[in-house]
Amino acid sequence: MIAAAWNLMLGFAWVVLTGDFSGRNLLAGLLFGYVVLVLIQPQVPALAGHAQRLPRLIMFICFFLKELVMANFKVAFDIITPPWYMKPGVIAMPLKASTEFEIAFVANLISLTPGTLSLDVSDDRRVLYIHAMFLDDEDELRRGLAELERRALELFH
Q1: 3-class DSSP state for residue 126?
Q2: CA atoms of 56 and 51, how far apart (whole Å)
Q3: 60 in the same domain as 97
Q4: CB 96 within 8 A of CB 149
Q5: pLDDT of 92-139, one tens digit each?
Q6: In terms of Cα–Cα distance, which of 98, 93, 137 is closest to 111?
Q7: pTM for the complete prediction?
Q8: CB 3.0–4.6 Å: which of 25, 105, 145, 147 could bond 20 by disulfide?
Q9: Are residues 54 and 37 in the same domain?
């Protein structure tokens, strides 16, 4: 988190020093700030792991967009075809997320994906209850959701 704050400050410093207050220039400043922080990372222990965050974020965004598009196609196909293929149901998914922020992040990602909806979290915060529109293969659904959780949690570690 310290590295992100430094990156933001370097980006704003770039904007102020260049005198160009456009979004494109801010993005360039953030990119230059990221490169500077990656270069000084070996000398500053507080920046440990910062270089891997941007590639992980890009990979996660690509993964989530792919999952989002596939889920949209599945729901759209079920809506426009005469026989309905959905088999709705509720599953309990064990969570690896531990903090409230991580649990909320994973639950919101699941709810953003068409065909799934986060319903509740157990009192001990170890199980997330999810309503699924397509519960053909419960194990496959759990594996897919666990993969989404794993990739989301990689962003914070």
Answers
A1: coil
A2: 9
A3: yes
A4: yes
A5: 999 999 899 999 999 999 999 999 999 999 999 999 999 999 988 899
A6: 93
A7: 0.77
A8: 25
A9: no
